[in-house]
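Usage

Read records sequentially. Each one opens with the input sequence:
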Amino acid sequence: MSAYPWVEKYRPRILDDIINQKGIIKRLKQFVKDQSMPHLIFAGPAGTGKTTSALAIVRELYGKNMSPNNTHIELNASDARGIDVIRTIIKDFAKSKPPHDIPFKILILDEADNMTAPAQQALRRTMEKYTKNCRMILICNYSNKIIPPIQSRCVVFRFSLLSKEDIKKRVKFVAKNEKLQITEDGLNALVDVSGGDCRRAINYLQSCGTLSKKIDADLIFRVAGEVPSDKIKKILETALEGHLPLVLKLLDDLIKEYGLSGRSIIKNIHQEIYDLEIPEKQKLELIKILAEFEYRLSQGATEEIQLQALFSRIALLQEAKE
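and closes with the structure output:
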């Protein structure tokens, strides 16, 4: 028995429970109604319901007859999925006949875009040869990483990021059942840092709940490793005014308080650029500068030196304008 019985009671098990993907869910429900479906590709950002949708199809199709490794099998990127696995486990599952009381078996390949090219090449023939016995659902973040021959054998469903209101509704539901008190500014901050990923939002909520039963925006930002936008905006505006010593002090305080990495700081600055009241040409220059220094950090450059150089370059923009 789960320690959290409400989770078991309300865990999404059927397609109607999946939110913000109405067009996709309508088509999937038709597949269930017809007791037939083609091979599918579920593509889209993390935390938008791709894996849940695949498991919901299995549950609705098979009902009480659902049996792991018999009616369906799920393989993740953490499993061995080289070409040998395609030729053995996957092929053996696909070619064996389904139980008499189900129309076909389902093979779910999660994070399929991490499969090697040779493994994908081996998979395409299996998909074609054993379609009668087995239908496949390939789940990925980037469908362009799936080779064209496989894409042509599948119907592609593209999942979109969840809306802010949908995430707020789910977070409030979880907070209420876990007896957590989340303030309105904390809820807005949680939605912002999750970036449309409901799973990430709930993980942040759980992390905050271990620290305090009352959750506000400051706690959310600290747990998520993000910085309040007003602090980033202040540093950026100070740099644009050319006050480099003050900028470096504010930057040092920010790193000590929030423990941010250099690339996280650059990402936060990038998010604030578009709201600055500066000429468009300056915004373009800022974006070019951020891209250059983000690349430097990705290549292993020293964070402290590169961040100081970054703000020095931003401060020079004001001098060039004058």
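Summary fields computed downstream for this record:
- Residues 1-13 have pLDDT under 50 and may be disordered.
- The chain has three domains: 5-158, 164-224, 229-321.
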